[in-house]
Amino acid sequence: MACDLNAIINQLRDKGWRLTPQRQMLLEALHAAEGHIDAETLWEQMVRRFPTISLSTVYRTLESLRDLGAATETDLGLGRVQYHLASHGDHHHLLCRQCGVVLDLPSEELAPLRQRLLARYGFDLGVNHLALRGLCSGCR
How many other CB atoms are found less than 10 A from the CB of residue 53? Predict the structure, then answer.
């Protein structure tokens, strides 16, 4: 899903977020990423253009983006938490615990579960990025 980086930046500024050159570069790299990306890979891309940037700065910025609702983080079972811009769309993942395949699961698939939880328990499921582990059809 395409998203306008300037719109994201404006929304973050409206929430009081200060846009430093490092943050700008991280947002651009996150925006350009194909799918999900981990902090270490983002840092490796960024350090080429900005040699003084630290990995802890990348992590802190990603955490801020997550807390502001601009990015999501998901543990895809790859040993590192993965990130992507929230404006790239809500979706979930099916992870095969045997072969490691990752399948995208549209958010609509969880709509009936969300409705049942709300009706039965009064619980509003606020998950917009979920990873479910099991066995894929090839490994079953």
Answer: 19
